[in-house]
Design a protein that fits this description.
single chain, Jelly Rolls, 24% helix
Length: 282
């Protein structure tokens, strides 16, 4: 499926932009289903729990529980100090995660199939394992910033194999918070893994590994893309996105896959039990 030029570009730049990978009816079906999940979510439950318990411990518990579930997570600016919603529910959700691709038929249909299996093989993913799915809403006006990070911090394997599949479900623009990355910064010293997110003693924490600075905005390039575009990128590629202060949402859907031939760290936050074993793209 990928041409030699595309493979070379991926190896050199650390990412590849594939316009039109998904057709309009496919992105529309995923967006519709995402909105249905939000509609079915009871915000009062989440909000009250936010205000009555240790927030950080609760956040850890909620994240861990979402490894084999479909959970909604609030935008930071959607709640007031008491944990009450200050925007309509439909616009309060930051993301849904993290097992829709294995639990929901609409998400599963979007997340699997020969086109993705072939692409993964072309990118060198041997017997891929798709650990996580996320809908990232990037809501109008309050869509939060995502600071510089490397996805390999969250999916450690030896060697590094995690690859991100980032689908634009809506147009991603400079105004509504498209991705930014510095081409080639996944390689050599620039690709040094800066931090690692570990599950340790029942808690989750970010461990600093290197003081290497993140790319500057002058070296980074924006990646505005139309709905239906797939951006694939290397786990060591630093990337970020700006807050969305525009009136238009920027929904994206991501999958993270590793090679089953590489050792998956038992300290990664996301582990699967025998009840929901990790699967590939088929
Ligand atoms: Fe990321």
């Amino acid at each position: 499926m990928l041409s030699t030029d595309q493979r070379t570009a991926y190896a050199e730049q650390g990412f590849l932009v594939l316009p039109g990978f998904k057709r309009p009816h496919e992105t529309a079906a995923l967006a519709r289903r995402a909105h249905e999940l939000v509609e079915a979510f009871d915000p009062a439950q989440g909000a009250s729990r936010f205000s009555t318990r240790d927030r950080s411990l609760l956040a850890d518990e909620r994240l861990l529980a979402s490894a084999e579930a479909m959970h909604c997570f609030f935008e930071e600016e959607a709640l007031d100090a008491e944990g009450r919603l200050v925007v309509p529910k439909a616009r309060s959700i930051n993301k849904i995660g993290h097992a829709m691709h294995d639990l929901d038929p609409v998400f599963s249909a979007f997340s699997k199939g020969p086109a993705l299996a072939e692409l993964a093989a072309d990118l060198g993913l041997a017997r891929p394992q798709v650990w996580q799915s996320m809908v990232i809403f990037k809501q109008p006006e309050i869509g939060g910033e995502v600071g510089w990070h490397q996805d390999a911090s969250f999916f450690e394997t030896e060697p590094v194999t995690v690859t991100t599949f980032w689908f634009a479900i809506e147009d991603a623009t400079l105004d509504n918070g498209c991705l930014w990355a510095e081409p080639g910064s996944h390689r050599g010293e620039r690709g040094t893994l800066r931090e690692r997110y570990v599950h340790d003693g029942g808690r989750l924490r970010m461990e600093r590994l290197s003081d290497r600075p993140w790319p500057g905005r002058d070296a980074a390039v924006p990646l505005p893309v139309e709905a239906g575009t797939l951006i694939v990128f290397h786990g060591l590629l630093p990337h970020c996105s700006a807050p969305n202060r525009s009136p238009r949402s920027r929904m994206a859907y991501t999958l993270h896959a590793t090679c089953s031939t590489a050792a998956y760290s038992p300290r990664n936050w996301l582990q699967r039990s025998a009840a929901l074993p990790v699967r590939g793209f088929d």
